[in-house]
Design goal:
Mean pLDDT: 96
Low-confidence stretches: none
Radius of gyration: 17 Å
Strand order of the largest sheet: 1-2-3-4-5
Distance between the termini: 56 Å
Order of helices and strands: EHHEEEHEHH
Strand content: 15-25%
Helix content: 25-40%
Number of domains: 1
CATH architecture: 3-Layer(aba) Sandwich
CATH class: Alpha Beta
Shape: globular
Amino acid sequence: MIALRPAVPTDAQQIVDYIRELAAFEREPDAAIATEADILRYAFSEQPLVRVVMAEWDGEPAGFALWFLNFSTWHGKPGIYLEDLFVRPPFRSHGIGKALLRYLAALAVKEGWTRFVWQVLEWNTGAIDFYEAHGARVMRSWLTCRVEGEAIARLAETAD
């Protein structure tokens, strides 16, 4: 049986474990450097920057969704940006991913938020099919831009 609940501080290490499992699945195991202290700081501080929903199957840790608010200037309202959705392989095909998506969609509707957005790797056709089957529109005309590491430091230096 699926159970969803908001994460609590004692879930921080489990969240880090999920992040590392997801990074391995996405073929970037060494890129996941988040720590338990990071999760505690950004998810459970007085003004958290991220929120996390934990999923359990028959009381066993099964997956999570980590998200935060973004903002649509066109609509003048916030929306949900889903950073990570992960269900451990032994718990897939039990409706957990769908339950997590529905949980967040219901929250957006309840709060009057305008959008629910996330990214998916181009090669992850199973996830793309899953998301499209649940009403998502893959926006192939939009490209992600990212500045990180040394490049973000160089860009910051040019701000003067």
